């Protein structure tokens, strides 16, 4: 019995040691990511200088360049511009234009998949975020770009069109971490979010003060489609990180009950996005299941670095668009009837379609197949990478003994 107890204590100590080292490493990596330019080259003489030179401004400059160690072809080091962004560049400059150029420091990016049927909700989203000096990208999955030209902000945002693609497909191909490295936070939101009770600046103030690497706004429980209780907005406090274990649907720790956000409205810090972008699979377009792995990109303890902001909340209407019909699914809450009425006309138009032509069924079927493929890939990668240690594997006995704190 004593031997088992000692072995258990030893195992716990090893797990704590691994978790601590992983968190320390990710904190150091986050600091490096904040300072290191994504596009840069480093000469052999520069690397030697880093090792032998003393402290000073020149050394700091060389160290700042040390993010990349490979020369790009035969290009001279100084010709590589170390930063990139998604800002639209004018073809000509005047003094007034230069003076009005927005400050690039602390800018954020919002990217939204946009179909013309959701024009009203996207318009409301853009007005909120563009007023706060956000850079905006619209992913047009229906290809109808010109139909947005009548909106006054249309020419100030980036439009990317590809028919019948998901936001994860767009994000993987157009939001490479090096390209969006100038932005402190990346908002990757769905189009069916209502933001009447949401302020981007106040939201970011909470995220920064609580050091949330990955977050989302809370959902209005009366009008929103709710999939998981952790996303429901709490009326007390500014944010929460977990659901009480007293909740029958969340009697355990871990996703989706703690350290987790859903894929409909995630907000990533720059460092978290550098990891999450790699998590998005090149060939699996629906992205089902990756939100359960966001914690591995949280730059440390996911139960501390991932949270839901309650004071700035949204309504998630749950409009299904890919595959043809824009139909709202059944919702929970007292206001579900009012929410369903918003799309009653659209539903009426789609009732006449034959069941065999319902593309939504095929879309969901493929989504489930991709979810299984992603889970198998994760399990295979974790099994074959013998140097990898899961930082979130903990003793079940320890979970049970830990008190639940919201």
TrEMBL record:
<feature type="region of interest" description="Disordered">
    <location>
        <begin position="332"/>
        <end position="355"/>
    </location>
</feature>
<keyword id="KW-0732">Signal</keyword>
<feature type="compositionally biased region" description="Polar residues">
    <location>
        <begin position="342"/>
        <end position="351"/>
    </location>
</feature>
<dbReference type="Pfam" id="PF05212">
    <property type="entry name" value="DUF707"/>
</dbReference>
<protein>
    <recommendedName>
        <fullName>Glycosyltransferase family 92 protein</fullName>
    </recommendedName>
</protein>
<dbReference type="InterPro" id="IPR007877">
    <property type="entry name" value="DUF707"/>
</dbReference>
<feature type="signal peptide">
    <location>
        <begin position="1"/>
        <end position="23"/>
    </location>
</feature>
């Amino acid at each position: 019995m004593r031997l088992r107890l000692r072995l258990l204590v030893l195992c716990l100590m090893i797990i704590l040691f691994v978790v601590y080292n992983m968190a320390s490493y990710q904190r150091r990596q986050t600091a490096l990511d904040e300072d290191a330019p994504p596009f840069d080259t480093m000469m052999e003489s520069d690397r030697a200088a880093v090792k032998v030179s003393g402290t000073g401004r020149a050394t700091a400059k060389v160290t700042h360049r040390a993010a990349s160690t490979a020369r790009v072809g035969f290009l001279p080091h100084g010709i590589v511009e170390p930063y990139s962004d998604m800002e639209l560049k004018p073809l000509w400059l005047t003094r007034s234009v230069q003076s009005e150029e927005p400050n690039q420091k602390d800018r954020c990016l919002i990217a939204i998949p946009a179909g013309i049927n959701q024009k009203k909700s996207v318009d409301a989203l853009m007005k909120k975020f563009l007023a706060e000096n956000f850079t905006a990208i619209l992913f047009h999955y229906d290809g109808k770009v010109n139909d947005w030209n009548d909106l006054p902000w249309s020419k100030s945002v980036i439009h990317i069109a590809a028919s019948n693609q998901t936001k994860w497909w767009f994000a993987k191909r157009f939001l490479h971490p090096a390209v969006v490295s100038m932005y402190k936070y990346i908002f990757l939101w769905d189009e069916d979010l209502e933001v009447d009770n949401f302020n981007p600046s106040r939201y970011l103030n909470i995220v920064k003060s609580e050091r949330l690497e990955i977050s989302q706004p809370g959902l209005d429980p009366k009008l929103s489609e709710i999939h998981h209780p952790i996303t429901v907005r709490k009326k007390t406090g500014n944010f929460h990180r977990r659901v009480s274990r007293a909740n029958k649907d969340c009697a355990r720790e871990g996703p989706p009950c703690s350290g987790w956000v859903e894929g409909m409205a995630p907000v990533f810090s720059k460092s978290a996005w550098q990891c999450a972008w790699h998590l998005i699979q090149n060939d699996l377009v629906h992205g089902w299941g990756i939100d359960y792995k966001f914690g591995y990109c949280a730059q440390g303890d996911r139960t501390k670095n991932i949270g839901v902001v309650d004071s700035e909340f949204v309504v998630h209407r749950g409009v299904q668009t890919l595959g043809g019909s824009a139909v709202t699914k059944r919702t929970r809450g007292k206001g579900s009837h009012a929410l369903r009425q918003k799309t009653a006309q659209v539903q009426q138009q789609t009732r006449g379609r034959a069941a065999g032509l319902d593309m939504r069924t095929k879309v969901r079927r493929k989504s489930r197949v991709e979810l299984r493929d992603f889970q198998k890939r994760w399990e295979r990668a974790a099994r074959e990478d013998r140097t990898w240690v899961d930082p979130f594997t903990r003793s079940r006995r320890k979970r049970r003994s830990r008190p639940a704190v919201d």
